[in-house]
């Protein structure tokens, strides 16, 4: 029904991904997609734009209804509407919460490798990231070492953890049992858990995620959940997100934090775009998930056949592939520089994600099949060049 084969050129649109490139470069790094937003979202934005008056905005009841019905229908979770707070983005919400819920020099626990901007939200606020590295199991999937997590949480300087659920960049969907353990440990050690669930709608066909706050009363009590339509519907530039905090005392703090930092008010398109996504775009999203899954299969086949030194980590969520390049190098900054200079391909070197990320590359699958094929050919030729240079 929708066309994911043709993507428009994004050059000249002020795109972080494309307009920062040298001529001819192909960027598959930053986590946005090359697909236009669903027609229903574009129509809602166009309708709002056509009105022509763009003064200050409120959050209407229909915005709450859109989130409540989406989480009920897609994720089997009842959101209490009074627990929902609008925010301009997940990162602004996380940064505000770090400032409000911790004091300077306290430690914030993160499970690395993880979305690099978590480090910024912690360090830029004068707090200390405490990395609790994830491990790779015999099945090729990442898992968390609970004993290590408990050791980190029992540090009295740790009062906050940022959980990534599902996890960028390793693509893990955490199970109910795994999340339950996190909640129990957090409750035991007095740690609040920010659960960043921005990737939750981007699961492989047939897979769904478990909202952290839905797991148990314990998880609910300790949780600050960040959700948004921006990643799944490719509208990050609209800046529209929500924070869900069921526990009233904690909610008041988060509400105060977001308002103090003045990130609690929507621009004139934020509400219309989110409502359209959550009330009209389920069919578009399901086709998108199929398309990303096909792109993933194509990429895995290509790697196995043409670049067997690179191994993709097994994943069931996000449109990002986490590629283990340890057979080639333990310095993927250098490898990515080589791919860029010899093959005009821009990927994310993994060191910025922490832990042993310096042996990995993150690869964005969310583009047209044709562009992906070009990218894979360039990857092959860049890797050949790299090997020759060694
Ligand atoms: C895990 C995660 N959280 C947050 C964001 C960005 O959120 P926002 O654009 O709402 O600030 C991203 C973007 O890639 C992400 O991967």
In short:
The chain has 390 residues and is α/β, with parallel strands linked by helices.
- Provide the CATH top-level class of the largest domain: Alpha Beta
Attached small molecules: pyridoxal-5'-phosphate
The stretches of 5 or more residues where confidence is low (pLDDT under 50) are none
Order of strands in the sheet with the most strands? 2-10-9-8-7-3-4
CATH homologous superfamily descriptor of the largest domain: Type I PLP-dependent aspartate aminotransferase-like (Major domain)
SSE blueprint:
Blueprint: E1 26-27, H1 39-51, H2 61-75, E2 84-87, H3 90-101, E3 107-110, H4 117-123, E4 128-131, E5 135-136, E6 142-143, H5 146-153, E7 158-164, H6 176-188, E8 192-196, H7 217-222, E9 223-227, E10 241-244, H8 248-260, H9 270-280, H10 282-306, E11 311-312, E12 320-324, H11 332-343, E13 345-346, E14 348-349, E15 360-364, H12 369-389
Helix pairs in contact: 1-9, 2-9, 3-4, 3-8, 5-6, 10-12, 11-12
Bound molecules: pyridoxal-5'-phosphate.
């Amino acid at each position: 029904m929708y066309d994911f084969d043709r993507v428009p050129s994004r050059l000249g649109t002020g795109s972080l991904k494309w307009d920062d490139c040298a001529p001819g470069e192909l960027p598959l790094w930053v986590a946005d997609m090359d697909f236009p937003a669903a027609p229903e979202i574009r129509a809602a934005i166009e309708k709002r734009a056509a009105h022509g008056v763009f003064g200050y905005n409120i959050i209407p009841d229909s915005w709450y209804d859109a989130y409540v019905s989406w989480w009920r229908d897609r994720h089997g979770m009842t959101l209490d509407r009074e627990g929902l707070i609008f925010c301009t983005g997940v990162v602004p919400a996380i940064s505000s919460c770090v400032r409000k819920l911790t004091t300077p020099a306290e430690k914030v626990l993160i499970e690395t490798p993880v979305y690099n901007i978590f480090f910024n939200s912690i360090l830029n606020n004068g707090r200390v990231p405490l990395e609790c590295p994830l491990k790779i199991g015999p099945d090729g999937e990442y898992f968390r070492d609970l004993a290590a997590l408990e050791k980190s949480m029992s540090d009295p300087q740790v009062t906050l953890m940022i959980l990534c659920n599902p996890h960028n960049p390793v693509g893990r969907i955490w199970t109910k049992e795994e999340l339950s353990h996190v909640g129990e440990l957090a409750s035991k050690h007095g740690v609040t858990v920010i659960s960043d669930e921005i990737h939750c709608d981007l699961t492989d066909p047939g897979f769904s995620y478990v909202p952290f706050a839905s797991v148990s009363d314990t998880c609910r009590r300790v949780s600050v959940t960040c959700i948004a339509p921006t990643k799944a519907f490719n509208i990050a530039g609209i800046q529209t997100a929500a924070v869900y905090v069921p526990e009233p005392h904690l909610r008041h703090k988060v509400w105060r934090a977001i308002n103090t930092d003045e990130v609690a008010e929507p621009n004139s398109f934020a509400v219309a775009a989110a409502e359209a996504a959550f009330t009209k775009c389920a069919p578009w999203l399901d086709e998108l998930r199929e398309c990303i899954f096909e792109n993933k299969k194509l990429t895995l086949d290509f790697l196995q056949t043409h670049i067997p030194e690179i191994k993709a980590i097994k994943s069931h969520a996000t449109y990002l592939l986490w590629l283990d390049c340890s057979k080639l190098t333990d310095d993927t900054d250098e490898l990515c520089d080589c791919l860029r200079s010899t093959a005009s391909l821009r990927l994310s070197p993994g060191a910025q994600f922490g832990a042993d990320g310096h042996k990995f590359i993150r690869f964005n699958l969310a583009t047209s099949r044709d562009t992906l094929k070009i990218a894979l050919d360039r990857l092959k030729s860049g890797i050949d060049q790299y090997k020759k240079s060694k």
